[in-house]
Amino acid sequence: MMTKKSEKITLRETFRIHSRAFRDVRKYCPGTFGITALHSMVSALSPYVTIYLSARIINELAGPRRAEVLWPLVLLTVGSTALLALLTGILFRCKSAMAAKYSVRKNYIFADKMMTMDYGDIDKTETHDTMSQIKQNEQWTGWGLGKLFAFFADFLQSVFGILGAVALTVSLFVMPVPETAGAITILNHPVFILVFVVVLALATGLGPMCKNKVIACEVACAEDARFGNRLFGAFGFLSTDHSRALDIRMYNQQVIARHYMESDKTFSVGGKMSKLAAGPAGAWTAASGCISAGLTGIVYVFVCLKAWAGAFGVGSVTQYVGAVTALSRNISLMIETIGTMKGNVPFVQTAYRFLDIPNTMYQGSLTTEKRADRNYEVEFRDVSFRYPGSSQWSLRHVNMKFQIGKRLAVVGENGSGKTTFIKLLCRLYDPQEGQILLNGIDIRKYNYRDYMDIFSVVFQDFQLLSQPLGANVAGSMTYDKERVEKALLDAGFGPRLDTMPQGLDTYLYKDLEESGVEVSGGEAQKIAIARALYKDAPFIILDEPTAALDPIAEAEIYSKFNEIAGDKTAVYISHRLSSCKFCDEILVFQEGTLVQKGTHSQLLADESGKYCQLWNAQAQYYTNKAV
Ligand code: ADP
Prior knowledge:
6-stranded mixed β-sheet; 4-stranded antiparallel β-sheet; 10 strands; disordered N terminus
């Protein structure tokens, strides 16, 4: 759970977790922080150049008024101010570009984690919940890793600002009021100077402390704001989602959407956030403003008194007032930044709760032999499996063996364990009992990536991307055009390809490209099959990608696929038996158990068997053509 009270978080933990996050994210954004550091330095120090030179000009004007000193000073002031403004402007542009780059690249850390974490963990409810918390925190004013960029820039700016201000302020305390000034010489007394510094420090510290109270108020609302954002995410754009347009009209769903949107008052007038702004958060903000105004007043009194008593010229008044107020501003910025960092700790902790999920699946190192003859043998040896967190076995004591190059069908009713069987075969999960062997070796001993490469799977819920057709099939922006076309032809997409306005360069869907084409479910499925064929893996698995089609169309696709799979091992999963009757071997699953195996005719011969029972139950759907 997220730590609720940011007060309990120590400074040490604040810096530890942020520097860890900084090190981790920096790898994804090379060059980003260098430019930002340079901008922080130049923008923090350049005002001091102008303050210093202006003070010299005023002192000269109020004193000797030498033209030969004034002119170079004026030129230097104008020139350096202009140059520094130009440099700051250029660096600001670069920094803004870097901030944009950062806001995209920082997410790669989560994408990489998703790609490399054990598949079983992706499925867990805690993982989903943590990931959605991270997303919602980021959406809500960027809490989490999103804040690092601003912290880095602000912290460095405050450090350089403090250094510059100290350099220009030291002489304020060192230059004494002349003895002739009478009672005002008290300003020279070390105790007075100490008291003045303490008052400055207190006032400087109090302002940002008040602002940090405002941040604490915001953080305390995180839970409600997350819920508000969740509602907004789920219902806010419902009516603009074209894939829902029909349902929304048919069932008047915008009424429900509005009900939910209006039921949450977190961000609305009179809601929690506005009450905070009108109440404690507003009061703390006002207090911070008053303290900062009071501080400027105290500085003016001290500096003007010293100048009046003759400690330094009138020009130095502007220098000291400018430098001391800048010192206080930069100390405030530092305290505020640290305060915001403290507030951000629970959000970074949430990010690390996700990023630190350990990979517990054993990673072997054997390479799968790239056999020209594609002669592999797969064996399930007494395999039992249940999903993480589930008490029910999804597969129980499964024993089977099959040769590559054959056509294997996995059939059974919904929920009988067919997909689970494939997920284990592809090592998305490891079985709790038994072993899966490839050419006699436990699949856990193979290099995971290498092992995955021998499979091309078209899952039930395959996804295509809003990018050109060719890139979708190849899974890459650069590809072999002829091979992609062949894969599409083999998958039965040929006639539709001829009508695509820009051939392989035609965008699918309209998300990115207005001229993108919408493809039907059946066409999308053919593209997904072409993608699997293009991968040219020795195993090709179709896991009911045809569920949306009628039994006859499905049977046609499967029998055509039988031709194009060539020497590959093809595994078909279906709860429709007619689609798979041409296979060399059929596995029949029932409630997680492999109850029968054999060819269509062998299985049909066993009249008391599950296969025969399913066949008879389904036969009514098929015409002679399909059966
Ligand atoms: P089929 O592919 O034959 O329809 P599945 O292999 O998808 O069946 O499911 C087998 C059993 O495992 C079912 O009882 C199902 O509810 C369960 N199951 C599937 N996926 C999960 C999961 N991610 N977590 C828990 N149980 C699951």
